[in-house]
């Protein structure tokens, strides 16, 4: 098992939370704490960079929905970036790719209707 780390970086435009490792029941608190830190500067958008995310189970999806609710309640928008591989496929199968603003590694974003190979 790989532990989840969440590095919060404050760019000029908005905070970026870079996830690395596995998002599941045991690591969801790490995500919540990072989002709370990111919201401290009252941004319009919080970016969640999933490039180094290696695993996300149903509890990880639940944690993502919970932090999206938290971000929305703070008056900001949550954007998932660098979504790829199995994580992207899980979002598509559960149709959560429509619930989040998603920028995938393949260039497909939320609502993209291009044919998939």
UniProtKB/TrEMBL annotation:
<feature type="domain" description="STAS">
    <location>
        <begin position="16"/>
        <end position="117"/>
    </location>
</feature>
<dbReference type="InterPro" id="IPR036513">
    <property type="entry name" value="STAS_dom_sf"/>
</dbReference>
<comment type="similarity">
    <text>Belongs to the anti-sigma-factor antagonist family.</text>
</comment>
<dbReference type="InterPro" id="IPR003658">
    <property type="entry name" value="Anti-sigma_ant"/>
</dbReference>
<protein>
    <recommendedName>
        <fullName>Anti-sigma factor antagonist</fullName>
    </recommendedName>
</protein>
<dbReference type="Pfam" id="PF01740">
    <property type="entry name" value="STAS"/>
</dbReference>
<dbReference type="InterPro" id="IPR002645">
    <property type="entry name" value="STAS_dom"/>
</dbReference>
<dbReference type="GO" id="GO:0043856">
    <property type="term" value="F:anti-sigma factor antagonist activity"/>
</dbReference>
